[in-house]
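Exercise 7b. C-alpha cells:
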C-alpha cells in the first residue's frame, strides 16, 4: 500500500491521547481503519499543555502503538486542538466580483474569505478556522455555494475560531519534537462532528456535545451549515474532583468510583446500595452510599447541560433541534447520561459512534474516538478535495498566513 494513501488523526485530550490510522484507495466507498493507539495523557490541563515532556511521552506511546498495529511509520498527522483558551466570533467579508462577465470564480470566493479573516486580534492570538456560514450575492441571501453565479457584490458571513498562540505552539511543539509533521489543525468538536453526523442530521438541526476531561465543547448545525460553536469551561474531570471532595478521598480513588459505580441519575440506584471502598483501594475502608455519589455526578452534569441550554437560547435554538444532541467524548460513557440529556435539554439524545469508516471497528467503536476518527475523515477530504460542496458545513481551516487559508479552502471546492 502506498504511504501516500495513509492518513492519521491525533487527539491529545486532558485524560487520554488517541491515534487513528486509516488507508484510502480510489474506488473504495469508505476509508479503512488499519491502526489504533491510546495512552493516558499526562501534562495536560483543560486542553492546555502544562508539561511538554510529559505530553510528548504520552503522544509517543500512543503513536508507537498505532504504528505497530498499522504496520506503518507515522510521520504526518492531523491534530485536534481544544481548551478554554479557544474563542469563537463572527465576522463578515465583502468583495467586488472580479470577472468582466460578473461570474463568481474560485478566486472571488477565496478573496471574500480573506476579507472576513482580516480581523483585529491581539498579537498573542492565532486563527485556527474560518468557516463560512452563508454567502450573499447582490440582494440574494442565504446562498450555500456562489461559484458560477452572476453578480457584482459578494459577501460572506463567517465563524472565526482562534486560540492563544503560545498554547497552540506548545501543543504543536510536542508533536514536532517527535519528528512528526502536522498537516492540519482542527477544533476537536468540529473533527468529531465529521465522524458522527449524517448529512440529514445537519440539515434538520443537531447539536454535538463533546464531553472531554477538562472542557466540554459544542457545535450546532442547521440547514447543512455550522450555526454556532462554543467551549464550556467544565468537563468530566470536574465530576471526579466533586466526588473526591464529597467523599473526602483521593483523586485516584474518586476516578475509580466514577468509572466503576458512577451513574448520572440517582433514581436508577436502589436505596441503601453501597460501595465498599476497600475493594477499590486496599488503603481505604468503610462503605459509602452509591446514591449519594450519583447525586454528586448529577449536579455537575446538570450544570454542563445548563450551560449548553444558555448557548442554545442565545441563538434561539433551545429545544428546537429536531435531530437532537449527539454526545461524544469519554464523558459520554457515563451510564444514564443520555436520559439526563433528554430531560435537561428537552431534545432527543444519543451517543455518537464513529461511522463512515471500515476496518478495525472494535478499536474505535467508542464515542471517545470520535475526534481522532473525525480527523482522519477531515484529512482525507483536505487531501483529496472530495465532498465538493462541503465548504459551508465542514471545516475550512486557517493559519497564520493567508496563502494557507486559500490553499486549505480550495481543497473543498470542485
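Sequence design result:
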Amino acid at each position: 500500500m502506498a504511504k501516500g494513501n495513509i492518513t492519521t488523526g491525533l487527539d491529545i485530550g486532558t485524560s487520554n491521547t488517541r491515534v487513528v490510522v486509516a488507508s484510502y484507495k480510489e474506488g473504495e466507498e469508505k476509508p479503512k481503519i488499519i491502526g489504533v493507539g491510546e495512552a493516558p495523557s499526562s501534562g495536560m490541563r483543560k486542553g492546555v499543555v502544562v508539561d511538554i515532556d510529559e505530553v510528548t511521552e504520552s503522544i509517543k506511546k500512543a503513536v508507537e502503538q498505532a504504528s505497530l498495529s498499522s504496520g506503518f511509520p507515522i510521520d504526518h498527522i492531523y491534530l485536534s486542538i481544544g481548551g478554554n483558551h479557544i474563542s469563537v466570533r463572527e465576522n463578515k467579508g465583502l468583495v467586488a466580483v472580479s470577472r468582466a462577465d460578473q461570474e463568481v470564480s474560485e478566486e472571488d470566493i477565496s478573496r471574500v474569505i480573506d476579507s472576513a479573516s482580516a480581523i483585529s486580534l491581539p498579537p498573542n492570538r492565532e486563527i485556527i478556522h474560518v468557516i463560512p456560514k452563508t454567502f450573499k450575492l447582490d440582494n440574494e441571501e442565504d446562498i450555500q455555494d456562489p461559484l458560477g453565479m452572476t453578480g457584482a457584490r459578494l459577501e460572506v458571513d463567517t465563524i472565526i475560531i482562534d486560540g492563544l498562540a503560545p498554547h497552540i505552539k506548545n501543543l504543536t511543539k510536542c508533536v514536532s519534537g517527535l519528528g512528526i509533521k502536522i498537516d492540519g489543525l482542527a477544533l476537536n468538536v468540529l473533527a468529531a462532528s465529521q465522524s458522527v453526523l449524517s448529512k440529514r442530521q445537519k440539515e434538520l438541526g443537531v447539536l454535538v456535545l463533546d464531553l472531554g476531561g477538562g472542557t466540554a465543547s459544542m457545535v450546532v448545525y442547521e440547514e447543512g451549515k455550522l450555526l454556532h460553536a462554543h467551549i464550556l469551561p467544565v468537563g468530566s474531570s470536574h465530576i471526579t474532583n466533586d466526588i473526591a471532595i464529597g467523599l473526602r478521598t483521593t483523586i485516584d480513588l474518586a476516578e475509580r468510583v466514577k468509572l466503576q459505580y458512577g451513574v448520572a441519575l440517582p433514581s436508577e440506584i436502589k436505596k441503601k446500595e453501597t460501595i465498599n471502598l476497600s475493594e477499590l483501594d486496599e488503603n481505604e475502608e468503610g462503605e459509602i452510599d452509591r446514591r449519594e455519589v450519583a447525586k454528586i455526578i448529577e449536579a455537575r452534569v446538570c450544570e454542563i447541560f445548563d450551560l449548553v441550554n444558555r448557548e442554545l437560547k442565545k441563538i434561539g435554538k433551545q429545544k428546537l433541534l429536531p435531530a437532537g444532541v449527539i454526545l461524544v467524548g469519554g464523558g459520554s460513557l457515563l451510564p444514564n447520561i443520555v436520559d439526563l440529556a433528554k430531560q435537561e435539554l428537552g431534545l432527543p439524545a444519543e451517543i455518537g459512534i464513529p461511522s463512515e469508516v471500515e476496518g478495525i471497528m472494535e478499536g474505535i467503536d467508542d464515542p471517545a474516538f470520535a475526534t481522532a476518527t473525525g480527523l482522519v475523515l477531515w484529512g482525507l477530504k483536505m487531501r483529496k478535495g472530495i465532498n465538493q460542496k462541503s465548504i459551508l458545513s465542514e471545516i475550512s481551516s486557517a493559519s497564520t498566513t493567508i496563502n494557507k487559508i486559500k490553499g486549505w479552502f480550495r481543497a473543498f471546492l470542485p
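Instructor comment: Confidence is low (pLDDT under 50) at residues 386-414. The radius of gyration is 22 Å.
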